[in-house]
Known about the structure:
It is a single chain. By secondary structure, the chain is α/β, with parallel strands linked by helices. It folds into 2 domains: 50-143, Orthogonal Bundle (uronate isomerase, domain 2, chain A); 152-467, Metal-dependent hydrolases (TIM Barrel). The protein contains 19 helices and 9 strands. It has helices at residues 18-28, 42-47, 54-58, 63-71, 85-95, 103-116, 127-137, 145-151, 168-176, 197-211, 218-234, 254-265, 272-293, 309-315, 330-342, 359-369, 390-403, 423-441, 449-467; strands spanning 33-35, 154-158, 181-183, 239-244, 296-301, 303-304, 323-324, 348-353, 378-380. Strands 4-5-8-9 form a 4-stranded parallel β-sheet, covered by helices on one side. Helix 9 links the parallel strand 2 and strand 3 (181-183). Helix 17 crosses helix 18 (423-441). The relative contact order is 0.14.
Amino acid sequence: MSESVRTFLHEDFLLFNETARRLYHEYAEGLPIVDYHTHLDAGRIASNRAFENLTRLWLDGDHYKWRAMRTQGVPEDYCTGSADDREKFLRWASAVPFAVRNPLYHWAHLELWRYFGVDVLLNRETAPRIFELCNEQLSAASHLPLGLLSRTKVELLCTTDDPVDSLEDHRRIAAAGLSPRVLPSFRPDRALAVDRPADFNAYVEILERVSQVGIDSYGAYLEALKKRHDFFAEHGCRVSDHGLEQMPAEDFTEPEAAAVFAKVRSGRPPDRREALTLRSALSAELAEWDWEKGWVQQFHLGALRNANPRLVREIGPDTGWDAIGDLPQAGALAKFLGRLDRRDRLAKTILFNINPAANEVMATMIGCFNDGRLAGKIQWGPAWWFLDQKEGMIRHLNALSNMGLVSRFVGMAGDSRSLLSFSRHEYFRRIVCQLFGEEVERGELPSDLALLGSIIQDICYHNACRYFPWDPPLR
């Protein structure tokens, strides 16, 4: 059909010396996956329903691919539009050769190889046959959602769920005893979006219905959110998850927060300081509930969302119009964490940054709040979103190693929107092994493979098993 991917994508892909190869193949390769942050659809997993075709499995919802296709000049109808699924795939395949040096090039071929045994380069000429070959496999048990997760040894994953979600799909998965375990994460972004009164009040009405609390005051709003927080805990949730430009850390009093809440409920937009005051008060409450339950709280910071208003209006949010923001993070983050720590109510916390300029900020910030009572209590999360690529991962691991203890790191989170993207854990593990292997070969680390292999196994799997309060615990 075409040149084989084995010219670069082989069993020793990204492993350039003997030590790296041994670390990967002997210690990292066979480990299960625990993924504590994904955007996967629990309903699809619960139903274990076959995908209609490769486009529905691989391209739907993937704004990484859509951005590359648009840059290549592919019209929107073939990205998020109504074009035929086969034509969408062919347009994507035509763009892939031009994605060299973008991580998508590696990921695309790794996913086709690992899940479908496709070992030829994807391009316009090979695409029709690849589409057929992959589609032929989709009805097999190995390529249903649970089969795909099993192929990469996914042991547990967390989805991303709004407080008003019924969690019905998670209940179905738990009742059926399906593997892997699929747990919800409490993601209250819409509950904090107080700067848009119309949208916020529509959300409050939904929250009233699902919580069965009449929300006529700030106190009632907290009561309703707390009921949902408790509901999530009853259904296996052990993680909260927040997407924020900056940590809200304005000084506030409860009467001030209540006054802003009343203003927003009346339909009047708050000014910038008022909105920040209310978000700060709500964030502090949520963080205390996390601490009370022993949850892990995750904060994804710094994304500049919806940077293209025209296309967001025409196509919608979360379709590829976001960028790296350049807002400062250190001051507000230190204030928010310090306020909780001062009252001994700081839960286990994972901080994610999207701006590489904040790498050293995050690497040093976690050290300020690791107080020795628990190993690695405050974590700097893995290279995220635009940083989730080879160079970004290496820079992250180096900064964490230089300013903290990489051996305590809880490892990769896929941020996945596709059931095929768990191969990125393999990508991460190969990069970690190569990084350690290089330094052994240069004489910068001891040639003690038992020691280094154990640390790599911790980073890739065991630390996440131990860090999160899974019930029942993992190994």
